[in-house]
Amino acid sequence: MKKDSALVVVDMLYDFIDGSMACLNADNAVAASLQWIDRETAGAADLDESGIHSTLPILFVCDHHPADHCSFAAQGGPWPPHCVQDTHGGAIHEALLPHAREEFTFYKGENQALEQYSGFEGVNAAGQTLGEVLALMDIRTVYVCGIATEYCVRNTAEDLLKAGFRVTVLKDCIAYVDRNGHEEALAAMKAEGIRLA
Ligand code: VGL
Ligand code: ZN
Fold first, then answer.
1. 152 an active-site residue?
2. Contact between 75 and 144 (Cβ < 8 Å)
3. Alpha helix stretches (DSSP H) within the chain
4. CA-to-CA distance for 85 and 124, rounded, in angstroms?
5. Residues 6+ apart with CB under 8 A from 87
């Protein structure tokens, strides 16, 4: 793994895995993401004292909605309630959690009145955006895994590409709402210049 690479894990949160919006392939995507991380960091003598890899920064995007978010059906939106702040459904899957650190965790969808599928402008506890933190670390190549292909994975990958990053979506490490939608989103991303690996 080159020094200028990072992994962005999008919405690997319980509501998208086995909760109110459980997505297809979610269990496989979690397992495959862990395998990818293990493979890419194998042999790298880069664990800091808290067991975090310094040569492969892993950044997490988290849907993080207020209970009356505009995207929920009760407010006329398309989705059931999901990823409500401070609920289990909004928590990162426990198998991935050891890789998460606060300054690399970015929240989106916090504004009641705003749908936000892209993690690019998600903010961490210090108020920095994902885009800012990647730029500060001189990251040029971003690998993306997570949920859902058609929504947050696609929007995040596209915004990263627009911002000038080389972007690779890990196609075995993503889960989706609908299989056809997943295939269409992959084809569209590929046509736009996002790599699939
Ligand atoms: C997402 C629908 C609603 C996603 C988030 O993570 O793709 N999809 N909120
Ligand atoms: Zn959402």
1. yes
2. no
3. 14-17, 26-41, 130-136, 154-162, 179-192
4. 14
5. none
Ligand 1 neighbourhood includes 63 CB (under 6 angstroms):
yes
Residue boundaries of the structural domains of the chain: 5-196
The reply to whether ligand 1 has any atom less than 6 angstroms from the CB of 157 is no
Mark whether 23 is an active-site residue: no
pTM for the full model? 0.96
The catalytic position among 108, 145, 159, 173 is 108
Q: Is the peptide bond before 148 cis (omega within 30 degrees of 0)?
A: yes
- pLDDT (tens digit, 9 = 90+) per residue, 142-160? 999 999 999 999 999 999 9
Tell me the H-state helices in 12-139: 14-17, 26-41, 130-136
| Contact between 190 and 50 (Cβ < 8 Å) | no
* CATH 3.40.190.10 correct for 5-196: no
Per-residue pLDDT reduced to its tens digit, 94-144: 999 999 999 999 999 999 999 999 999 899 999 999 999 999 999 999 999
**Strand arrangement of the beta sheet that strand 195-196 belongs to:** 105-108, 58-63, 5-10, 141-147, 166-175, 195-196
Proximal ligand: closest to the CA of 185:
1
Residue 86's identity, in one-letter code, is D
Verify whether residue 15 is a known catalytic residue: no
Return the best residue to mutate from 8, 115, 151 for the ligand 1 pocket (most ligand atoms within 8 A of CB): 151
For residue 81, the CA-to-ligand 1 centroid distance in Å is 11
- Report the alpha-carbon distance of residue 37 to residue 58 in Å, rounded: 9
